[in-house]
Amino acid sequence: MVTIKDIAREAGVSFTTVSNVIHGNAQHVSAATVQRVQRVMEQLQYVPNMRARGLVSSSSHLLAFAYGHDDTAARTVLEDPFASTVVGAVEQEVRARSYFLLFSGVQSSGNLVQTVDSWNVDGVLVFGLSTQSAAELRQGVHCPLVFIDGCFPQDGGKYVNVGIEDRAAARRLTEYLLARGHRKIGLCSACAPENRTGADRERMLGWQDALRGVGILPPADWVLPCATEQDCANILERLHDFTALFVCSDLLAARLQLYLQDRGVRVPRDISIVGFDGNEYADMARPRITTMRQDVHEKGRRAVQQLLEYIETGHVQQPDVQLKCTLIEQDSVRNLNE
């Protein structure tokens, strides 16, 4: 078994220096030395003794990634392109920090409390749970919690959360359509209007903000579900009511566009479509879909960084991180001013 002494000898540094690098206490070690030690660790295939490390530091070096799980859902979280990208970014950052990740689907806050207690995790990343479950978690989980894409009331920053500027970005995307002469802009998402929460709700509010900003009060029936083939059929029946559709995710936008095209609708000549997220579905569609891109990799990295700051210091300097989004103009919008 490779030891710290072996690494120190091979790297030409002290035992203490190697120990500091391994345990994340390398603030006073030069970047070049850290890289040299890490390179030797990789070459020698060093595996830290996590049990001994935990006894010394009172830390398990185990983080939990808990995601909302529904046994009736058609897809698992790893089959969803957005969620799987978040998971990949989180895992990469956790591994780089010499921690390990416990991946757990939970149906309720009670399930997560039991998991945390059983595994003695240092902290928890929470993704895809309701606001009510989040409040219950704060009461039942006695270790640092960081939420990804949480949607919480304005209550003085009690929650540590990493998300994006959903409402502001949705407003900018709607204003993009307005600037190109569109006034009848429908909003499409995975769920019915009365069930919208989280990001979908924030994006709907941003869409409303933009329309009201030019004096348009969108009627309730401009908000349409588009999760199923029947939903898409209903949108096709009402297509004459709109010149553009704001779809709350690129996956749904690409599906809807394909459904309409298969039935003779020309995009963007007959209807303009925009999506949200900026993932591969927008780029693979033809025409390519104009979208609002979020940096999902950065979201995952920042969430891990927030959690480790919380674990190491007991607090977080910036509890609510809202990452910026970028408008990606592609080929799915017709300029009605021309």
UniProtKB/TrEMBL annotation:
- One Pfam family assigned to this protein is LacI
Question: Which terms does the record give in the GO molecular function aspect?
Answer: DNA-binding transcription factor activity; transcription cis-regulatory region binding
Q: Which residues form the signal peptide?
A: none
* Top-level taxon of origin: Bacteria
Q: Which UniProt keywords apply?
A: DNA-binding, Transcription, Transcription regulation
Describe the location of the HTH lacI-type domain by residue ranges. 2-57
Entry's PANTHER family?
Answer: LACI-RELATED TRANSCRIPTIONAL REPRESSOR, XYLOSE OPERON REGULATORY PROTEIN
Know the name of this protein? LacI family DNA-binding transcriptional regulator
Q: Which organism is it from?
A: Caproicibacterium amylolyticum
